[in-house]
User: Fold this.
Amino acid sequence: MTTDLPLDQVRTLLAVVDEGTFDAAAAALHVTPSAVSQRVKALEQRTGRVLLLRTKPVRPTESGAVLVRLARQMARLERDAYAELGLSGAAGEPTRVSVAVNADSLATWFLGALTRVPQEPRLCFELRREDEGHTATLLREGVVMAAVTSSPDPVPGCTVRALGRMRYRPCAAPEFAARYLDGPLREVLPEAPVVSFDRRDDFQDGFARRLGAGGAAAGRHYVPTSEGFVEAVVAGLGWGMVPQPQAEPLLRAGRLVDFAPDRAVDIPLYWQQWKLDSPALAAVAEAVVATAAEELRNQARAVLPANGRFHSAVDRSPETE
Assistant:
């Protein structure tokens, strides 16, 4: 850290962002709120930029996010240095690794990857659940040090590695399909209720548009968990795009049908992380990439349609439609 950006001021900025208010940051740093305010103002004067939006909770500006990311990287390097010196072990504090991951990956393969991370050095994981199209934002803001994302474009200061493709199947309960989906899909889909993850979820609508079935659905249910989403589709509340690992056993059991078996959608996933020489982060990355190679890439080999016979699926990834 250069004298132009005093370490105590940058750390104070990070504390304000993490704690949400100047008062809470002061308590965490064991200083007065006035001292916190003075440090942040001094840092803003040094950079010539507004670094914080004084909202509740406090939010960093675009310039502030750059310094927050720098502060987290400095803290990460400091903890790694202590670990190599054997100091963190003496304190009994494990290394914390923060990762942004989409809900479907979290529900299907990602936790398995974390179990493959070596037991030493000791790690604790802080997972932030976010749509794969938005996880890169948390990485850019410095909230996390790595992310599973759908973007191949590296966030500044980060590296990117391809993980594979998450395959999704257009599914519905058999009774639902018989009632709502008996006919050309471009005609019947707009009249069928649909399940969405949340109000930002445009996946089902995008699938319908690619089939030529434009327009709003007759009804929409929002279920903001991966497991709950699948359960809602199985219960017949609506149709939805179900991840292959979750769909396959339900298709075999006859609890779901794939109403467009030649229209599977593959979403490419990437691993992005800070450019840091961090043993902890490197260990997590290797486990994630290895697990993805097994779990994701195997999905592209075969698809099980409703009739129970395997066949090759047509790649309907967004960038080729």
